[in-house]
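Exercise: predict the fold of this chain.
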Amino acid sequence: MPGNSAAILEELRSILKDIQESFKKLAEEVEEMKKLQVEMMEVLIGKSEKTAEMKIGSKFVKTGAIDLKIMEKWSEFTPEIKINCIRRMDLETRLNLRRTARTEKTLVDSCLSIQDL
């Protein structure tokens, strides 16, 4: 029986070693997938910064390159300009903007109509 126990123990060690190697390979593959996801996100962000779609009526129209830095100045826009922009937004974008600040909430609410809901 002691010889049999040694053989079983050796077999378990071999299985453990195989599992550890498999886990190491899996961890490396996961890291590689994470790197690929980051690269894909960078590409998508780069594309979304370069082009945009504007909804006009029921159609989406491609626009040219947009300068995202202009949104840094949103708080400096007059309420009239903001309302003009808000009226061109779809409902989901309006509701997202509404959640950002009390002033934007008031502006979005003033632009919402029953047709939007």
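Check your answer against the key: The chain has two domains: 1-59, 68-113.
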